[in-house]
Amino acid sequence: MTNQSSCEQNLTFDLESYLQQRKTLVEQALDNSLTINDPPVIYKAMRYSLLAGGKRLRPILCLASCELAGGTIEMAMPTACALEMIHTMSLIHDDLPAMDNDDYRRGKLTNHKQFGEDIAILAGDGLLAYAFEYVASHTQGVNPASVLQVVAQLGHAVGATGLVGGQVVDLASEGNPDIGLDTLNYIHTHKTGTLLEACVVTGALLGGASQQKLAGLSRYAYNIGLAFQIVDDILDITATQEELGKTAGKDVEANKATYPRLLGLEASKAKADELTNAACEELSPYGDAGIPLKAIAQLIANRKN
Length: 305
Prior knowledge:
Layout: H1 15-33, H2 40-50, H3 57-68, H4 73-94, E1 104-105, E2 108-109, H5 111-115, H6 117-138, H7 144-158, H8 163-173, H9 181-207, H10 211-238, H11 241-244, H12 250-253, H13 259-263, H14 265-281, H15 291-302
Antiparallel strand pairs: 1-2
């Protein structure tokens, strides 16, 4: 969807290979992070959703921003895994009958359809708690004060100040024809944006970024987070269930406020482009080192699922 103005990149950069390499590293780390213990059913449920696939965009963002700030993949990997644990928790809970009530996620039965609602709720709880434990117990080669900042950032992103608050307003707004753009922006910058921002900021914190660089990367993340959700709203009405890996058209069916509904489809696409270009502008001080994050911004704007 996006144009090239601010997101022009080195044409020799192979984004597909970059993403595949890091996704493989993340998948291995996630598999190793959580083994089956007693009681086995809860660990099986946690692993079922955690290892269900997906683009692994959030942990890859964390790794990329850590490297951009001068850190290493090894320094950021425990936090990258924790971010995917938190994201997976949010998907498990979001799919529950009391929330969005969906039967499929990433092309597979949702957790509550596979294990029952009770175990699904507890699997999400287990992943959320374990995410914080994993950061604290597995991060190495990083100043403890920075690890503490990472833990605080994760808590801010997932709590009532972030994901939970956005979900509450989203539920309260469902079916309300009077929801405006300000409320919609609030929902999505909190429900989706704060966790994406945490991915970028925590990686940069682990890599030792200055406050000035953290501020710029935070703005980058804010813009890609909102662009991500606008594209999500567009895909809900333009993509098939097979393409999405989840039920298509649910926003329209639930009479939800979406960007296409409020702005129209073309204006929504234009807004996603604008946000993507603004995100890329924040990376201009980094030169070629910012290419991976620029490419990821473009990927978000152009994704098909």
